[in-house]
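Re: the request from the purification team.
They wanted to know what the chain is likely to look like in 3D before they choose a buffer screen. I agreed to run a prediction and write the result into the notebook, where they can find it.
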Amino acid sequence: YDELMQGTNDTDKPQLIAIIERKIREWFAFTGGIITKLDRNRFLILFEKKYIKVFTNAKFEILDSIKEITLSNKIPVTLSVAIVVEDGTKNEKLQSAIATMDVALGRGGDQAVIKKDGKYEFFGGKSKEIEKTTRVKSRVVAQALKELILESKNVVIMGHKNMDADSLGAAMGIYRIAKQNEKEAYIVFNNYGVGLKELHERLLKDEYANVLLPESEILPKVSEDTLVVVVDTHKIDLVDAPSILDKVSKVVVIDHHRRSAEASIENPVLTFHEVYASSASELVTEIIQYSEEKITVPKVEAECLYAGILTDTKNFTQKTGVRTFEAAAYLKKLGIDVAAINKDFQTDVDTYVAIADVIRNCELIYDKVAVALCPKGIENQVQITAQAADELLNLNGIESSFVLCESDGKVHISGRSNGKLNVQMALEKFGGGGHMLIAGAQIEGKTIEEVKDMLVEVIKELIGTKE
């Protein structure tokens, strides 16, 4: 609401608000229900549940109708709808609806979410997130995080399974904040994912061997007074060390992925969940940048943060905003060596040949969606799957790509998009997540061919719905 109003001429603001309110009331009028405006940007609606079928059959056309409003507003108007169909008291239903709205907003807004019998159904969600211009939240989070660190015995930081550059970069940034406040800190590092081999080896040479530790070595250091900071994920089943979460009561979550319908970490004491951000490393860089006291970040840690932003934005070509470049500029001022970072992520010849094999055997759906299988028997299949998905998106005419591989008894899917198709919505069908441009999923109990057939059907369904 604030971003919308800031970009609208003063003379148009009353008319804009009136048009939005009229469209919402006209959309809802046929139910004969009650609608009341709670405050400047929230409405409460009560209606008989028999009308839900009408809304779903029309795929919540209000979402598209509201985006057609064009006065002097620089960004499109978007609407989020949360509907709850559950038993319970009126107050319980209201609280459930408020929590469901958090899910809708945590996924980027511009969508309707129906919660029925504990399960979620999603409609819309096609708009890119709007970047917030105010840094107030970054400053508030920085101060709150400092206070939590000071009142804790030590700090444990962890990202998601198969840690990537963004997860490591954000973890290193939080580690520096903890050390600045004179607290012992450890990063859970069970294994690394895409492209982290060189960077990991460089960190071990820089005396981080006693910081980057496996779960088994960190667990004895964890107590009730330990603060756990989870970066680059908010899902319980994706954290690198779930056993550590079971031992503590204070958890901080810093993430940029769209909110998943799957189980999220419950009751964190502090959450910094901003889906407009390019990466968790960008969010942590802002926390460091806008802290009240100056935080001295060593060069190698700044390079980890920069590598995280670089990786998640595909060399600043995707999901970047003004704040992304400001964070990168701040890290550059700290003296990072961009050439050295790029060297850490260079592809060797064998990997490049494997990626070329994947691309050569891809299948096109509607001439714009590429689906490919990673050949069996090659090393680093999960890494090659992700890199091949990136490369496919660079080909002319390809709007989105999905690459599958089998590893450790699971089928892994990497999805990439240029924004035309929401890959998060596609891979949520398989229990995965991410955001609309980059997403992933892991499936157990099925062959790679079975998963591929299911994926093709999901893609056709989504494209058919979109068109």
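For the purification team: The chain has a mean pLDDT of 87.
Please add any questions underneath this entry.
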